[in-house]
């Protein structure tokens, strides 16, 4: 009896969505696909921060000088550089926001948090590469640090491990 009711319900849904149960299923799949694409399209506006996975948005820091650091867990020079970037992040004298991007592109927030903890990162780490947002090429060498001006243009790109002094010097007007 339940099977008969189920078939009747599927038939009614199919009829409501195109007279044919198969058409109804196709329309449902299309609707879910559109919803998924819409969700993914909106994902680059909000990321997760380093310490506790609270929301962090690059849009929220627009008008701020950004220090975008590309790193990976397997990159020795990246590991060496992280304490220098943490110091800049903690400094109240620096008018810039340090933001990281994990070049390994972890598949989950939990994996991202594990990588951040392993690396000892204290600054926000975004899951969507900022290169497209700011119009620069994705770095091919790690570590790479891109300095973005308050107006969103690239000031300079620093390739290789940097010290706190190197990064602070790059922030100064030339």
DSSP summary, beta strand count: 7
Radius of gyration from CA coordinates: 23 Å
Strand order of the largest sheet: 5-4-3-6-7
CATH fold label of the largest domain: Glutaredoxin
List the total number of helices: 6
Can you walk through the features of this model?
The strands form two sheets. A five-stranded mixed β-sheet has the order 5-4-3-6-7, with helices on one face. The protein is of the alpha/beta class. Helices cover 43% and strands 17% of the residues. The protein has helices spanning 2-16, 21-42, 76-90, 109-119, 131-134, 164-171; strands at residues 47-48, 55-56, 66-71, 97-102, 125-126, 144-148, 154-159. The chain folds into two domains: 2-43; 46-171, Glutaredoxin. Strand 4, helix 4 (109-119) and strand 5 form a beta-alpha-beta unit.
Key phrases:
Glutaredoxin; about 170 residues; alpha/beta; single chain
Topology:
Blueprint lengths: L1 H15 L4 H22 L4 E2 L6 E2 L9 E6 L4 H15 L6 E6 L6 H11 L5 E2 L4 H4 L9 E5 L5 E6 L4 H8 L3
Parallel strand pairs: 3-4, 4-5
Antiparallel strand pairs: 1-2, 3-6, 6-7
Helix pairs in contact: 1-2
Can you give me a brief rundown of this structure?
Helix content is 43%, strand content 17%. It is α/β, with parallel strands linked by helices and 174 residues long. Helix 1 (2-16) crosses helix 2 (21-42).
């Amino acid at each position: 009896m339940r099977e008969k009711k189920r078939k009747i319900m599927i038939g009614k849904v199919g009829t409501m969505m195109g007279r044919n149960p198969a058409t109804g299923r196709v329309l449902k799949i299309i609707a879910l696909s559109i919803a998924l694409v819409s969700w993914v399209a909106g994902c680059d506006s909000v990321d997760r921060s380093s310490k506790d996975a609270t929301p962090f948005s690059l849009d929220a820091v627009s008008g701020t000088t950004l220090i975008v650091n590309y790193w990976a867990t397997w990159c020795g020079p990246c590991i060496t550089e992280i304490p220098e970037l943490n110091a800049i992040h903690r400094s109240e004298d620096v008018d810039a926001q340090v933001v990281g991007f994990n070049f390994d592109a972890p598949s989950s927030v939990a994996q991202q948090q594990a990588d951040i903890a392993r690396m000892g990162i204290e600054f926000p780490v975004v899951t969507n590469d900022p290169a497209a947002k700011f119009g620069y090429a994705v770095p091919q060498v790690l570590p790479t640090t891109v300095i973005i001006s308050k107006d969103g243009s690239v000031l300079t790109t620093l390739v290789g491990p940097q010290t706190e002094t190197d990064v602070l010097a790059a922030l100064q007007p030339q």
